[in-house]
Design brief:
23% strand; globular; single chain
């Protein structure tokens, strides 16, 4: 019986990993399309009733220059304004990909390390597939749910696509 459960979990994890990779890739596409630069890497995690997307290396040249001038607050303020304006588009994208209702969304920018975190809260807990994929990614295959720079994807001319 445990072999059946293990094989079912593996199949569910595979389907979940496809979803997480699509979410990462679409978030990168959105960042590139609307912000002008996508991150160097993005990875999605589905836990309980939330989705966490961690994007690394997404600062623009202008933002890096402003940070050198000590203007972190200005960079953060612009990013927050941008994310506030993008809320409905990003929520719509995540709802379409997951088939789930998003109740709330928040974005957070960190300068050291250079990370942007996108958090989406759903109206219900995640299904087994996405949770299993996140768990498998943490325990076995660290690339599950990840999009990285240099992968091939015809829809993304520069930047990242799903592995």
């Amino acid at each position: 019986m445990s072999e059946i459960i293990d094989s079912q979990t593996a199949v569910e994890a595979e389907h979940g990993s496809d979803l997480l990779a699509r979410i990462s890739t679409e978030m990168v596409r959105a960042q590139k399309k609307y912000f002008g630069k996508g991150p160097e890497s993005a990875k999605s995690y589905m836990l309980d009733d939330f989705l966490l997307i961690v994007m690394r290396g997404s600062q623009t040249v202008a933002e890096k220059t402003m940070i050198e001038f000590g203007q972190e607050d200005q960079v953060r303020a612009f990013r927050q304004t941008f994310e506030n304006e993008m809320t409905s588009r990003l929520i719509g994208m995540v709802e379409e990909l997951t088939g789930r209702k998003v109740l709330g969304y928040q974005s957070q920018l960190l300068f050291e390390p250079e990370v942007v975190i996108e958090i989406f809260f759903f109206d219900e807990r995640a299904g087994t597939r996405a949770v299993a994929a996140t768990a498998m990614g943490q325990l076995q295959d660290h690339t599950i749910g990840e999009a990285r720079e240099g992968a091939h994807d015809d829809d993304v001319s520069e930047g990242i696509a799903a592995d």
